[in-house]
What we know:
Elements: E1 10-16, E2 26-31, E3 69-73, E4 87-88, E5 111-112, E6 115-116, E7 121-122, H1 128-146, H2 170-181, E8 191-195, H3 199-202, E9 207-211, H4 224-230, H5 242-258, H6 267-279, E10 293-296, H7 308-324, H8 339-345, E11 348-353, H9 356-373
Parallel strand pairs: 2-11, 3-9, 3-10, 10-11
Antiparallel strand pairs: 1-2, 4-7, 5-6, 8-9
Amino acid sequence: WYKPSSTLPQLVARFQQHPQRSCSRSIEIWTTTCIVTNFGMQRHRNSHAASKDNDDPHPTLSHLPRCSTMINPANPFLTGPHSFPYFPKGGPQPKNPPNRTAHHIMGYVSQWGGMDVGSGMLFPAAVIDGLIHQLGGKYLRMECSCLPNHSFSHAYHNQQTVPEEWSGIDSAVEILKNSDRKHVKCPVGTAVITSSGGEQLRAEYDKIVHTVPPFYNYPPTATSEMKQLLGIDAESVDPESWSYELLRSCYRHSFRLAFGCNQSNDDKSKGTLCNLLESIGITNQVSVPENQRVSVPLLGAGCRGFPASVAIEAAVAESVSWLSSSNNECLHDDSTSTAKSARKREPVVAFGLLETSDAEVLATKLRESLQIHH
């Protein structure tokens, strides 16, 4: 997700729902060196802003993504990197925490998930969620910890673990199920929304939509109630496509939250959370993002172990569905007609990819799918 370069994001392709209409939905595909620090509002570059009377004081920034909301691939407990010192790429979540055999460099985190450190392991600095929590700091961590357990969590037998591995030990299975149901803020396939927390992340984004893709080879155990709650057709899902359907569900739930459909997770808990955050000095969080431009990584293609082709297929399917659906409301609608205000009102899903080859494949597949759809 990151390249050590100051190169600005490059637009690869753009697809618009109704080009002649105001507030028309669009899909954009970009390449970027980092979707967290080189794709957002980049307010740290606006410190020398011109007066407010100037309609576009930063013409050099007007052609950048400048998204104010980001979709973050998280874990079900919204703990960022704090639950695990490192993680096996592709999962599953190991049943035991890191062992206590000291490593000559890494100390007491030498092995986990049957692999040596550095072999198929991902560290916080190597994943989007790790950087989000690093820049969001203690304020984001506090907000995430204060969120209630998700209302769907009761329908899951497991989240990132594999109960079948302990099927011969009933007590172990029960302990696993109970632990997987505790403190589940965002079950696999769902999404929740928070502020961006600390000052560093607020310089880039106003809101963070957290969603939890499944591990490609280790999805949660499918249940009829899960399928119903997530809006997945129970008749069409076979075991091989279950991970794929859960990944699509991540996009659907994330888009709904990002574009204002049920923006609060729960009104009562949100009020309690706001009061708590204000009591510790967090009072400068925005209630509405500056625009309707939402940055999206290629979900599933990193830590979750999806083949790039499958991850792209899911992204294309849900992008076409979102782009083709009706758009009856705009969060930032107003009576002005300037280019700047129009850009704020326009709902945009902006994919930020690291590799140009992946961006071009995504653009090609999306173009082909839209032609078939129409």
